[in-house]
Amino acid sequence: xxxxxxxxxxxxxxxxxxxxxxxxxxxxxxxxxxxxxxxxxxxxxxxxxxxxxxxxxxxxxxxxxxxxxxxxxxxxxxxxxxxxxxxxxxxxxxxxxxxxxxxxxxxxxxxxxxxxxxxxxxxxxxxxxxxxxxxxxxxxxxxxxxxxxxxxxxxxxxxxxxxxxxxxxxxxxxxxxxxxxxxxxxxxxxxxxxxxxxxxxxxxxxxxxxxxxxxxxxxxxxxxxxxxxxxxxxxxxxxxxxxxxxxxxxxxxxxxxxxxxxxxxxxxxxxxxxxxxxxxxxxxxxxxxxxxxxxxxxxxxxxxxxxxxxxxxxxxxxxxxxxxxxxxxxxxxxxxxxxxxxxxxxxxxxxxxxxxxxxxxxxxxxxxxxxxxxxxxxxxxxxxxxxxxxxxxxxxxxxxxxxxxxxxxxxxxxxxxxxxxxxxxxxxxxxxxxxxxxxxxxxxxxxxxxxxxxxxxxxxxxxx
Length: 464
Hints:
Oligomer: single chain
Strand content: 15-25%
Shape: globular
Structural class: alpha+beta
Radius of gyration: 26 Å
Distance between the termini: 73 Å
Helix content: 10-25%
Largest sheet: 8 strands, antiparallel, barrel
């Protein structure tokens, strides 16, 4: 008999609802919606307060602000996957005459390009996009404030440039590309650049009295790729599942995992915070989170993912300030992860195994240090230290018979199995390191050679 644990336990559901109820009440927001994604699907969602003439639900739209940047990053990475750009390409190779110099696409994605945080002129989030009709109006006379690649400096104009890059190479507006390449494949039917009923109106709540002021909901124009989108918990739940698992119709699992890796110097806050390719990164209570926060006048939103736990939490509210939606979103993840730890996938034998690959498995030694090489599905390999905190990495098979490092110290490095003239296995070559079947095997080309007298007891050569 197989037990099913797809649904959350009643005690967990109550704890989740209690957390958002406290957030809505203490944060003094007209309404708040939240959801939890586990195992690739939304397993819980709820709303508090009043919006769109009733209690908000998973189909009520809110503005998500800078979570929009993640969607723009996905579109840029699709261009990379198609070979139209390289992440290390200078932006101006593809989008000339911007005035930002040699900043690269990767630096723009990770906010490491040194561009200004905001556009010049009136506060862009609260003024019509018509005031900034072109890139020059978004960048101003001094678009670059810091040396590229030297500092993390969050930049809304930087993502405006990335949106313009998508438009240039696709030959159509950013929102049309987004709809066709991301929203439609992921069935995000309630996400778009303009609100569609039912949606929550944006409010500012007076700091010292329980009264409210309506906020304008401006069309951001050319800056839309930095923060325009409206969405729902149902749609963002699908997007969260995509960011954890990938979807070959949009981006595969290896590319979304790449988005979650640090790609820039640490963000302010220290080594526990950073930025990947379009995703904010941080660590809390030993867990790695990725995702993004978002805010526009009248709205707050956060989507946090714990890929290791396979859990995501998302929260949206219709207030300019008040509820700490970022903290609440992380709390939702931790409530589920701690009360209902992830159940691992069942072990299953490989459907087939190449005898040549099986020959590679087992113990190997880097000098005297023991490692083990394990065979993974799809002809992949994992090299793991057997003692202490050694350098562990996974490797993907390449067409030329080598393997490429996917993570850890050997990310991007090449692993080769070297054979003798008679075809027998000699050693592994990994980025100039030689791994042998025996510690310092004298029959292998160990750099520096191996002492001819071999291993000996400590008193074999007493001091003179």
